[in-house]
């Protein structure tokens, strides 16, 4: 999954760092640092972080499951 944060939009609310601390972190009070290639295990946390951003500064390619193997997709469907 590939993440992009528009740092011009980011206001440092840190909701993403609270919800996905293994992916997003605040450096000082206003500077966000993040891993642009988040691990699959972080998918749910990243989805929550994207949704929680008050200024919608975070976009995530592959968050919708694109790129999963067919078997993983079936397992996710069966779990619902």
TrEMBL record:
Domain of life: Bacteria
The keyword Metal-binding appears for this protein: yes
Keywords, sorted A to Z: 3Fe-4S, Electron transport, Iron, Iron-sulfur, Metal-binding, Transport
Cofactor: [3Fe-4S] cluster
InterPro entries: 3Fe4S_ferredoxin (IPR001080), Fe-S_cluster_ET (IPR051269)
GO molecular function terms noted in the UniProt entry: 3 iron, 4 sulfur cluster binding; electron transfer activity; iron ion binding
Function text: Ferredoxins are iron-sulfur proteins that transfer electrons in a wide variety of metabolic reactions.
Protein name in UniProt: Ferredoxin
Species this chain originates from: Streptomyces diastatochromogenes
